[in-house]
Amino acid sequence: MIYFDKVTKFYNGGPAALDDVTLTIEPGEFVSVVGHSGAGKSTLLKMVLAEEIPSEGTVFYESSNIANLSKRELNDLRRRIGTVFQDFRLLPTKTVYENIAFAMEAAGAAEEDIEADVPHVLDLVDLSEKMDRFPRELSGGEQQRVAIARAIVNQPDVVVADEPTGNLDPISTYEVVQILKKVNDLGTTVILTTHNKGVIDSLGRRVITMDEGRIARDDKSGRYIL
Amino acid sequence: MALWINIKRVSRAGFVGFLRNGFVSLATVLIMTIMLFVVGAIMTTGAALESVLGQLQEKVDINVYFLSDAPEEDILTLRNAVSELPEVATVEYVTRDEALERFRERHKDDQLTLQALDELEGNPLGASLAIRAKETSQYEGIANFLENEAAVGGGTQVIEKVNYFQNKTAIDKLTDIINASERLGLIATIFLACASILIVFNTIRLAIYTTKDEISVMQLVGASDWYVQGPFVIEGALYGFAAGLLALLALYPIAFWLGPSSQAFLGSFNVLTYYANNIGWLFFTLVGTGIALGAISSFIAVRRYLQL
């Protein structure tokens, strides 16, 4: 489904952030990417979203080369990939409901579908009570759950989560991971980067370990080893 | 249908953003109000200047005095020739009888002069033409034309004198003053207009700078460029609309206050009357400028951050 072919990325002439990375992610997988800061985890995820373009090599999403997509195709691709960030990145002037509805509106969904689907995902992340709140009125864990709800509301093929638990306390971390597992159980591919050993060990799924831009290990049922 | 839904969503997002970004909206609207107020003040000052210069120009004319024995058909021929000049606005023909009547009217309290006039046999006054040009700078050309006419005048001399040559210095000076004021007015207008545009543009850019992270999130969620830009453009237009209205309202008390003194100082020009008579035009210009400036500035400012 997602295929990295000998991908290398340089930022402004510095050392390679990604160095000759080749890997395949299959539909329905739950892949965790671990590594020290600067190991290239975030760059790897940004490539999937075409936030960054490879300096060398190619990233394929299904059969299309992401670097060659037109603006319109890129927007379509991004609607098929849900994104969750460490710093939540909710729209501060929109309510919880509107934040989630925005992703559907941007995709051109009909008003009836929005009215049906948004409460549904809010229920999934257990925030139905708070749909009229603004992000600043929520705790970090709640904001991250809104971000996940936004990421999955368009029923994407893939959810990309870049250190989603990095700013959260242990209980919120547990909740977020449980939701991501649920999302994966419903058939969505999940790509997760994290520093959290407990999260990785409790998942027992595929773990890719990165070191200085290279893939150091790729274990089918891995543990957090650094 | 889909387009209509998108337009509806973008407009609603724009309105909601305008209301929810309360403080930023307020600050932007206030700065735009000041700028549009300056535009309104420039327009009013320009109109006042034009009116004063117009009045001065009205007062300038040149008179051609004919010899008292000049035959009327020669005078009429000259009048027709002068009226056909493109730079001439009006020509007024004062016959000998009218000249006498005006003279008596002017001196009706001056018995001595009237007695002296009565002593004379017949009418000592000649006919005259009062010529008004479209621009003060054109008097010289008309005067030269009259000179030539007088020189070639078909053998008989009919023109006694053309008073342009007596008033030349005054008319030239006035022409200079008028030209200089118009040029100065234009420079001031251009300068202030440029300053306003820059200040408004930068204010809006700053307002949008604070939302640049949101713009990238919208893009990552898969919103198309215009769907991201649309609400900001609407918000910008709303800033401009509100600022235009406020500037128009702010001009009213000032016009009211300056009304009587402006009339006393400038003669026929009353700021309040100008405001009242041109309210539609002022509304159109201020609100229109505000909307255009706000929308275009937002459009350009957001574009910078649409880089994903």
SSE sequence of chain B, one letter per element: HHEHEHHEHEHHHHH
Main beta sheet of chain B, described?
4 strands, antiparallel
Tally of contiguous helical segments of chain B:
11
User: What is the multimeric organization of the chains shown?
Assistant: heterodimer
Mind telling me the CATH superfamily name of chain A?
Answer: P-loop containing nucleotide triphosphate hydrolases
CATH architecture of chain A: 3-Layer(aba) Sandwich
Number of domains of chain B: 2
Domain count of chain A: 1
Proportion in helices of chain A: 25-40%
Name the average pLDDT of chain A.
Answer: 90
Question: Which spans of chain B have pLDDT < 50 for at least 5 consecutive residues?
Answer: none
Overall, the morphology of chain A is globular
DSSP strand content of chain A: 25-35%
Query: From the helix content, strand content and strand pairing of chain B, which structural class follows?
Result: alpha+beta
Into which percent range does the helicity of residues of chain B fall?
over 70%
